[in-house]
Write a structure and sequence with these properties.
The chain is built from 5 helices and 8 strands. By secondary structure, the chain is an alpha/beta fold. The chain has one domain: 3-Layer(aba) Sandwich (Dihydrofolate Reductase, subunit A), CATH 3.40.430.10. It has an 8-stranded mixed beta sheet with strand order 4-3-2-5-1-6-8-7, sandwiched between helices.
Length: 189
């Protein structure tokens, strides 16, 4: 059985990393370092597959195939990408598979197979759906020492309260915290 692990780059006030028209779209850049990249790659593990929403897949497909020859790029490029999309025929960066019309059913079946961990990056709609359904095993937050005040949040307002258990924390020389939590389930009242 595979684990589903969420990885999110996040500010102290809950804004997630994304590009686009956001005023501070590259706010993570100043905090990147070789030591941080090594810790993040270690957290991902030696091999994994990706679960992505269509928007994140499109962003990744423009960057990672041309990112160069280094461990993270190589691992991402060879990973099978499972995509929540209504247009699976337009998926060109592979190996890739569309998840079909019933995404939760497809991911539940995929999780029950043997294989590497399934990692979600970005894909906030998919992240919220999988947390709410109880399919997530771990949440890894890469927390940056910034307060952004506004922007796209990790989770929507409709998600059911969840309980997490602390697993580990690692810090980079630039002040990033890589915090890993085990997903327990719905928060008890």
């Amino acid at each position: 059985m595979r684990k589903i692990r969420i990885f999110e780059h996040i500010s102290l006030d809950g804004v997630i990393e994304h590009d686009g028209d956001y005023e501070y779209g590259a706010w993570t850049t100043a905090y990147r370092s070789p030591a941080g990249a090594a810790l993040l790659f270690e957290a991902y593990g030696p091999n994994f597959d990706l679960l992505l929403g269509r928007t994140t897949y499109d962003i990744f497909s423009k960057f990672w195939p041309n990112a160069g020859d280094f461990p993270m790029a190589n691992a991402i490029n060879v990973a099978t990408k499972y995509i929540a999309t209504h247009s699976p025929k337009s998926l060109s960066w592979g190996p890739v598979e569309g998840l079909g019309t019933d995404v939760l059913q497809a991911i539940t079946a995929l999780k029950a197979t043997a294989g590497p961990d399934l990692i979600i990056v970005g894909s906030s709609t998919l992240t919220s759906t999988l947390l709410d359904s109880g399919l997530v095993d771990e949440v890894v937050l890469i927390t940056y020492p910034v307060l952004l005040g506004h922007g796209k949040r990790l989770l929507g307002d409709g998600i059911t309260a969840r309980e997490l258990a602390f697993v580990s924390s690692k810090a980079t020389p630039t002040g990033l915290l890589i915090n890993t939590y085990k997903h327990i389930g719905p928060l008890k009242k």
